[in-house]
Design brief:
Layout (H helix, E strand, L loop, with lengths): L2 H11 L2 H21 L3 H10 L8 H10 L6 H5 L5 H11 L6 H9 L9 H12 L8 H8 L3 H18 L6 H18 L3
Helix pairs in contact: 1-3, 2-3, 2-8, 3-7, 3-8, 6-7, 7-8, 8-10, 9-10, 10-11
């Protein structure tokens, strides 16, 4: 399916607010890809499809994941919304015909982040955090950083997300902590010229 066919399907299947969010993430991802020299078309497709499984809720999410052979972690069993990213990657492949591993990985990683994130992983993770519809304390600062330094912006997004989860008493997905630590080590290695 091409981008325009995907848009038609998502317009009909996603709730209006979710579709607007997906469209805004897509546009933000394209802008970030242009700014940071990433593949624009891959960023566009990953951006529009990143939440293709998000309309599923709780038990329905877990049931659909099991149908596709996805085994939820303990953290995902307690907070089923976390599984929408991994399930979204499967749906992007099975339903929308996406075969590019970079796109599928970016969709899979967009909620929690991960270690050794690619440029497209970082762009989709960040675009989801800073798209124009996001209204939270600190979002404008992260948007400003995103225009100056991609890694610093992703680190700021990790920090915000982790602090938000802690403040709300939620379970921290290990991918977020490991992803943040890995990014910090990569940034230090770049600074040290290694």
């Amino acid at each position: 399916m091409d981008y325009h066919e995907i848009l038609v399907v998502l317009t009909n299947e996603l709730q209006p607010a979710r579709f607007r969010h997906s469209r805004d993430v897509c546009q933000t991802a394209v802008r970030l890809a242009e700014r940071w020299g990433a593949d624009i078309e891959k960023s566009r497709i990953a951006g529009i499809l990143h939440d293709c499984a998000r309309n599923l809720k709780g038990h329905e999410l877990l049931k659909t994941a099991r149908i596709y052979g996805l085994i939820p972690s303990e953290c995902e069993l307690i907070q089923p919304a976390l599984i929408h990213a991994s399930l979204g990657a499967i749906i992007a492949e099975k339903r929308f015909g996406v075969t590019d591993p970079e796109i599928l990985q970016a969709i899979r990683r967009h909620t929690t982040g991960a270690t050794y994130m690619t440029k497209i992983d970082k762009i989709i993770y960040l675009a989801d955090c800073i798209e124009p519809g996001r209204k939270y304390a600190g979002v404008q600062r992260i948007r400003e950083i995103a225009d100056k330094n991609l890694d610093e912006a992703v680190l700021a997004a990790f920090d915000h997300s982790i602090l938000f989860v802690i403040a709300n008493g939620g379970l921290m997905h290990p991918n977020s902590l490991e992803g943040r630590n890995c990014l910090l080590m990569e940034m230090k290695a770049k600074r040290d010229g290694k």
